Amino acid sequence: MGLGLIETMRVREGRIPFLERHLTRLTRSLAALSLPRPSQDIAALVKPFAGTGNAVVRIEVSDGRTAVTVRELPSLDGPAVITASEPHVPYPHKTTERDRFADAAREAVVGEADDALLFTHEGWVAEGTAWNLCWWEEAGLRTPPLALGILPGIGRARVLELAPAEEAQVARPGLDGKSLFLVNAVRGVVAIASLDGAAVPTDPRTAELARRFWPPS
Fold first, then answer.
1. Residues 77-80: contacts with CB within 8 Å, 24+ apart?
2. Which domains does the chain have, with CATH numbers?
3. How far is CA 202 from CA 42, 52, 191, in A?
4. How far is CA 104 from the centre of its chain?
5. pLDDT digits 0-9 by tens, 69-112
């Protein structure tokens, strides 16, 4: 199998809220990477799974073929996160080349944490193993810049629609004392419970974003 692309979609209350956004990103990445388009109609493949209530649908497109799998929804509890020693490398497209993220996730397990946050070689905060990071400053919402090569997440884009935000390039100390949350198109907005063993302060604005995150039916 050659290089492939992945889209991981939430089935929520019998529908796939961000289906069109996933398909748009997939089409854009296929073109950018000069990968063959799948012969199947992906929307037609995944829509029958919408009736599963609450679940996760994963599609993988490789060599012009599409594979669809379904799994249970992961825990939506606030995770304990560590900073990974594995450095972040640019990941502007959601490809199957995910060894860095898999290694960071294993490091979290060894460290008795739930997940890990990766930093660039220069020391800038980048993204999690399967999520984008946001945090609150006194002046408002912040998130790492796309220019660092982070994934342009569907969830990240949704949050930026809901709340004024600025991209901010910060090192690890810049996160201390901040209220942090993760976001992706499966979990939505989830407050991070701790970072490197230190409790992360809560912010009521996170709960409000989580409430508004999913588009109405």
1. 77/190, 77/193, 78/190, 78/191, 78/192, 78/193, 79/113, 79/114, 79/115, 79/182, 79/190, 79/192, 79/193, 80/112, 80/113, 80/114, 80/115, 80/193, 80/194, 80/197
2. 4-71 (3.30.470.10), 80-212 (3.20.10.10)
3. 39, 33, 7
4. 15
5. 999 998 889 999 999 999 999 999 999 999 999 999 999 999 99
